[in-house]
Design brief:
Rossmann fold, single chain, binds magnesium ion, about 260 residues, binds adenosine-5'-triphosphate, alpha/beta, two-stranded antiparallel ribbon, 10-stranded mixed sheet
Length: about 260
Amino acid sequence: MARKKEKPAVEKQERVPTGVPGFDELCYGGLIRNRTYLLTGTSGAGKSIFALQYLYNGAVKYNEPGIFVATEERPKEIRQNALNFGWNLKALEDENKLAMVDACAAKIGIPSKEKYVDVRPLDIRSMMDQIITIQEKIDAKRAVVDSSTSIGFYLLRDLGKIRLELLRLSTTLEILGLTSLLTCEIIEESDISRFGVENFVTEGTIAMYYKRSENVRTRSIEIYKMRGTDHSNKIHPFEITPDGIVVHPKEEVFT
Ligand SMILES: Nc1ncnc2c1ncn2[C@@H]1O[C@H](COP(=O)(O)OP(=O)(O)OP(=O)(O)O)[C@@H](O)[C@H]1O
Ligand SMILES: [Mg+2]
């Protein structure tokens, strides 16, 4: 008698909504849980705002605490800027729904009064140890490293080493049960990552653009890669509004 073929048990992909209006519609409801994504863009493209909005929404709308590792901006300034969008980070920090790690002060040799300070900011392992400790403490589900371009990779001249260290970081974050965004600074709009290897060792790449056409610049966003799922392959316009980033999923930008 012919036996009925059993379907292999496939673990269902759980989605993590970013809560950024319009973005989750581009990827079936959000990022895939426990994966690490690269968020690339030139200076001023909107990476830090997107990343912060992801953590803010996580804490406020989805009850998912987050960790923000700030490598090039001081947490004090980030808190001030966030207030422009009505995001009170301090209140979330007091409730242990958000942890801001100052990975900037020690690097430039100034004191920090922050609760979490990365005293060896160029040592990627030390940063990972700190993330592990905070994750246990606040049961974080989301993480952001802003930016990943400046956490010591640039000291590693060897592309193979950069690739390995980044793979170690992204995999560690995934094993910890974190869904993460690593921002990545690019110089040329045509590049997809700074060293040309970061996008290979992360599960997905979201690219943000701030392109000039004649006398005006337009903001747009694209899901360049998202392993394990279908997603929009178009470039969509977005705005930075008084409430944060709003993506227009039904519109597209032609270049
Ligand atoms: N309250 C606001 N309302 C509207 N636009 C804003 C507001 N605050 C910042 N912006 C815009 O967002 C830009 C900064 O965005 P963001 O800090 O996210 O960029 P970034 O990609 O992280 O840049 P960098 O690589 O330099 O850190 C500003 O240059 C400005 O154009
Ligand atoms: Mg930034």
